[in-house]
TrEMBL record, chains A, B:
Name of the protein: LacI family transcriptional regulator
Superkingdom as given in the UniProt entry: Bacteria
Domain HTH lacI-type: residue ranges: 10-65
Species per Swiss-Prot/TrEMBL record: Agromyces intestinalis
Keywords (A to Z) from UniProt: DNA-binding, Transcription, Transcription regulation
Length: 354, 354
DNA sequence: CTGTTAGCGCATTCAC
DNA sequence: GTGAATGCGCTAACAG
């Protein structure tokens, strides 16, 4: 029961007094490196701490130690399965290191992102992970770069996910190669006329995937017409709207549409169905990411698998493992890209035999 | 460029010296309440801070002020859309208050939850939000309750989401009434034979929804047979497995299956389809939560809408708004439950006319 | 308004 | 091993 007795939390000082030992001893018993304190005192301190409901003040520890136990994570949208899966990975790995994760959402707004980086930097997090989307028009020497550099100079470690236009640690996701492989696979299935549903210009990820898809088609001797590239927001509704626009304009022979991520692809599926057509049969659909739900839509979605949770884990590891302060990896020693894999499902049954 | 020059972050002290003012003045110029410092000094301090890339140390501020700017959020599984939507709401609302959210995942393990609460308490968060699932066998005077009580006694505010078996602030989600309304609606559609896919015993939310569904059926003069209640994990795969078991056992006339949450329902849809049946037509399906994806599955899922993001926002507001330290609301003044709404979609077309 | 000073809670030197 | 003292970065009285 929480009665009205509002008191301040017990401090280490209180514990020391209660146990009849010095502050230093209490500190050592509760945290100090490996056992250096008499077993008797030790148990007395622990008992006192339990009795007083003592909980070490992490802020105070951080100040005294000059180092926090925090990891900052920036994503574009927490409710988006792409980001929440990455976040789950980061949190899981952080937990192993007894690190606490703080999370913020940029909503894909570069200014917000900058503000958040600034604010989060105040935490002096051990690591800062940026999973939020990078933009093509983003200068590598702008204020964000400045901020990140300052953070690193002060001993922080930043990890980018996906692209490494900055000279910073990066979990490389080869969007371009993945999309190319998808295009190759679809061409192998016999498709010849393609359309792409992508995000508005400016988003690196979307741009790379489109470019990669073009690469793959070109390798198969297929050209992607600019008029067959439609754009929408990088969301389910954006995919729905763009696909609807494509349909209204008239397919003109397009057999399959590639949406640059799965949430847009799912929107595409619904748009096709709402237009009275049958996804897969009348118009095939492929996505990218392999988020959990694409197995359960109808037809199950062909996509490019990206190990989202692992990416999150890897991002944290990357920052923690080279604690030798050797600085960010140079492009030459850049880590291998995370492996992606084309997964063909029923949404691309092969072109209709007529 | 981050060159090798690794330095410690600039401190307020540095800024003060650089600006040629006292520590106090620098502090006031950068944070101190409304303008009390000479405009000239003010700009000088700001300039110095910018020049030095100064970023206030939040930990130090927290220690000095005796109050943090942190909100701790506990969820069962970050990648689950139910929780990530709530989290998105919490983060969005926290952002308005310039509060930082720290997140942890209990993985539905009560022991983990306790550990996490203990660990998070060290942050001295202003608010602690528990969205992780409560269990029926959970004592209201166990160690978790103790821990939460201690936290509140020390001035913290905890908010529970869903159930209020504890005497703590709660965002009430009337799972029971929602499920009852769903049962009523389905009965109104003409269904007479029901099955339920639920989680293993012990989860409050699952239990309440099952009970409510029973209530609703009973009101319609329909009995739910115990043999028509199948259990699985509280996940998509759990729903899939349980439904598969139900199908293998034989439907025996069951017309519609209610899965106690949408992720399980989505699994049910796939299980039905994989068994060679047509969801909706051969076996209707209903879920609970109205997560984003259920509009895009086939057939679109009948469910009970729960304003997940709003719940997250409301949880934070609840904790912040009664900063008058009046303590947790008594049951009598408990806040209204969040409104839920039955949403009938194509997955429950009404019983087959044979 | 500004500067000086005393803490905040804790880790960690340094003597004992 | 243990305790006393110093300092981490910052805020908040407290005097000027």
């Amino acid at each position: 029961m929480t009665d009205g007795t509002r008191s301040t939390p017990a401090t280490l000082h209180d514990v020391a007094r209660e146990a009849g030992v010095s502050l230093a001893t209490a500190s050592r018993a509760l945290n100090g490196s490996t056992r250096k304190v008499n077993e008797e005192y030790r148990t007395r301190v622990l008992a006192a701490a339990a009795r007083l409901d003592y909980s070490p003040n992490l802020s105070a520890q951080a100040v005294a130690r000059g180092a926090s136990t925090t990891v900052a994570l920036l994503v574009a949208d927490i409710a988006d399965p792409y980001f929440s899966s990455i976040a789950a990975g980061v949190v899981a790995e952080a937990d192993l290191e007894r690190l606490i994760v703080t999370m913020a959402a940029t909503e894909r707004d570069p200014e917000r992102e900058l503000e958040l980086v600034r604010a989060l930097r105040g935490q002096r997090p051990r690591v800062m992970i940026l999973a939020s989307s990078r933009r093509t028009d983003e200068p590598t020497d702008g204020p964000l770069a400045e901020e990140l550099a300052a953070y690193e100079r002060a001993g922080g470690r930043v990890v980018l996910i996906s692209r490494n236009e900055y000279a910073l640690r990066t979990v490389l996701l080869d969007n371009r190669a993945g999309a190319a492989a998808l295009a190759t696979a679809l061409a192998g299935l016999g498709y010849r006329r393609f359309a792409v549903v992508t995000a508005g210009e400016g988003l690196r990820t979307a741009g790379d995937r489109l470019a990669g898809f073009r690469d793959g088609l070109a390798a198969a001797g297929i050209e992607l017409r600019d008029t067959d590239v439609v754009r929408g927001e990088f969301t389910r509704d954006g995919g729905y709207a763009a696909t609807t626009a494509l349909l209204e304009r008239g397919l003109n022979g397009v057999e399959v549409v590639f949406a640059v991520n799965d949430v847009m692809a799912v929107g595409a599926l619904s748009a096709i169905r709402d237009a009275g057509l049958e996804p897969g049969a009348d118009l095939a659909v492929a996505g990218f990411d392999d988020i959990a739900t694409v197995r359960d839509v109808t037809p199950p979605l062909t996509t490019v698998r990206v190990p989202l949770e692992q990416i999150g884990r890897r991002a944290l590891r990357l920052a923690l493992d080279d604690a030798d302060a050797s600085g960010p990896a140079s492009p030459a020693t850049a880590p291998d890209a995370v492996p992606t894999e084309v997964v063909i499902r029923a949404s691309t049954p092969g072109p209709r035999t007529r």
